[in-house]
Amino acid sequence: DIVPLNLAHSTTAEIQLGGYVIPAGTDILANFTAILNDPKHFPEPEKFRPERHLDERGDFVQNEALIPFSIGRRVCLGEALARVELFIFFTGILQNFDIRLPDGVTDPSMDGTHGFIWMANPYLLHCVARQ
Ligand code: HEM
Question: Domain of life, per the record (predicted)?
Fold first, then answer.
C-alpha cells in the first residue's frame, strides 16, 4: 500500500457504477488502502505475513486485489523497473545480512504515516552481516 489514494483521475463521460450515477468531470480517487487491506482478500491485513503471497512450493500467488501499481490504461509506467529495483535491493540485503527483530520485539511494526504515499515510520531491526 504505497500510493493510498492512487493518482487523481476524472470521468470524461457520465457513468453508472455500483448503482451510482457519476457525472462527467467528476474527480475520482481510488481507495487503494481499502482494497489492499481488505480482509476478504488479505486475511488479517494488519499482520506482517509475507508468506500470504506464496503457495506451498514458495511460488508467488496471483491475487486480483493486489494492485499497488494500479490497473487499467494508466497503470504505473515504472512497474517493471520498480519490481526489478525492489528485487535487486531486497535480495542484496538478504544475501548480506541475517535480519531479526530486536530483543524484546515480537511483531514487526506496521506503523506508517499517510500522505500522498504511505510511508513506514522509523523502526528497529537487528541486522547481522553474513560471513
Ligand atoms: C514501488 C514503486 C512504485 C509504485 C507502488 C508505483 C505506483 C504507481 C501508481 C499507483 C500510479 C498511478 C496509476 C493510475 O493513475 O491509475 C503510478 C503512476 C505512474 N508511475 Fe509509478 N509506482 C512506483 C514506481 C515508479 C517508478 C520507479 C517509475 C518510473 C521510473 C514510475 C513511473 C510512473 C509513471 C510515469 C506514472 C504515470 C502513468 C500514467 O499516468 O500513464 N513509478 N505509479
Answer: Eukaryota
- 48-67 pLDDT, tens digit per residue, is 999 999 999 999 999 999 99
* Protein residue with least CA distance to atom 2, ligand 1: 82
**Among candidate residues 58, 64, 59, the one with its CA nearest the CA of residue 41:** 64
Q: pTM of the prediction?
A: 0.91
Q: Which cell is 109 given?
A: 511494526
Sign of the four-CA dihedral 66, 69, 75, 77:
negative
Residue ranges per structural domain of the chain:
9-129
Q: What single string gives the DSSP state of each residue in the chain? A: --STT-S-EE-SS-EEETTEEE-TT-EE---HHHHHT-TTTSSSTTS--GGGGB-TTSPBPP-TT--TT--STT--TTHHHHHHHHHHHHHHHHHHEEEEPPTT--S----EEESSSEEEPP---EEEE--
What separation in Å is there between the alpha carbon of 118 and the centre of ligand 1? 14
Q: Name the stretches of the chain with pLDDT < 70.
A: none
